[in-house]
Design a protein that fits this description.
The chain has 278 residues and is mainly beta. 8% of the residues lie in helices and 56% in strands. It has 2 domains: 2-77, Roll (SH3 type barrels); 84-269, Porin (Beta Barrel). Strands 7-8-9-10-11-12-13-16 form an 8-stranded antiparallel barrel. The chain has a 6-stranded antiparallel β-sheet with strand order 4-3-2-1-5-6, with no helix packed on it.
């Protein structure tokens, strides 16, 4: 009788112990048997269920899919990248100068605005003839306008960190359309016949293409953005040979094809109240 009583008490004790454990399920499916001590805004503090010394551990919520408490309730952890509150302190407007365009005698100023998490819209205006004149160029004039829709291609979260990167940070692809019109007067020297001539070239074109780049946000205040692009253009263009390539500052090419390189440096401004999560 005593033996049965002891077994029954031991069974009840073990059942109580088993039922008193909390279960944390990570996003990779791994389950941890724990005793949760505290749930904070960003983390969960716990001890290992089998640790008699009760050493405290902390796990970021971003690594967790759900938590089951010992009393049967669940804590479902939503994807933090879909929650705009994590980016509430991030400024969503970015004003940039394109230094690769300046090297092509073009002043290019860009304005980027975050639309929602992982997406932004950028408009860049260009004025030809303000910048560093390349060798042989006499005069350059005109203007251009480009619009890009940026889509982030990677997570804003570090694998081992809870605090996300800035909402405008990261690698992106950007479908781009634009318009350009201008004139360019240059001296050309032809080595094969030692002749020099002056050409006045003009263009009025539309273009579309895609950019691939990365934007770095420094101290959540400044940005460094670099990208490469390929574009197709159509319209009026008197730049007809390899010596008379179409030069749009940060873009150059001929035969209806343009290649671009951008190096933009900017600063962040504005508020984040307009961030939407839809």
């Amino acid at each position: 009788m005593k033996t049965k009583l002891i077994i029954a008490i031991a069974f009840l004790f073990s059942f109580t112990k088993i039922s008193a454990q909390d279960i944390i399920t990570k996003k990779n499916g791994e389950k941890i048997m724990v005793i949760i001590k505290e749930v904070t805004k960003n983390t969960i503090i716990y001890v290992d269920y089998n640790d008699v010394n009760g050493v405290l551990f902390t796990i970021d919520k971003v690594l967790i899919s759900k938590v089951k408490f010992q009393y049967g309730k669940y804590l479902n952890v939503k994807n933090p990248e879909k929650n705009p509150m994590y980016f509430f302190d991030d400024k969503i407007n970015n004003i940039m100068i394109n230094f690769s365009a300046i090297a092509g005698n073009t002043l290019a100023v860009a304005y980027e605005k975050n639309l929602k998490i992982g997406q932004s819209l950028m408009i860049e205006a260009k004025i030809y003839g303000i910048g560093i004149e390349p060798e042989g160029e006499i005069k350059k004039s005109g203007a251009g306008l480009g619009i890009s829709y940026r889509l982030k291609t990677a997570s804003l979260f570090n694998k081992e960190s809870y605090r996300p990167k800035h909402i405008l940070h990261g690698v992106y692809i950007a479908p781009t359309i634009g318009f350009s019109a201008g004139k360019n007067t240059s001296d050309y020297y032809y080595s094969y016949n030692s002749n020099q001539s002056t050409h006045e070239l003009s263009h009025r074109i539309f273009y579309f293409g895609i950019n691939y780049g990365k934007q770095l946000v420094l101290q959540r205040r400044f940005t460094i953005d670099y990208s490469f692009g390929f574009y197709y253009y159509f319209g009026k263009d008197s730049n007809t040979d390899e010596y008379n390539q179409l030069n749009l500052g940060n873009m150059a090419g001929s035969n209806n094809k343009l290649f671009g390189f951008n190096l933009r440096i900017g600063f962040l401004t504005g508020k984040t109240a307009a961030i939407k999560n839809k």
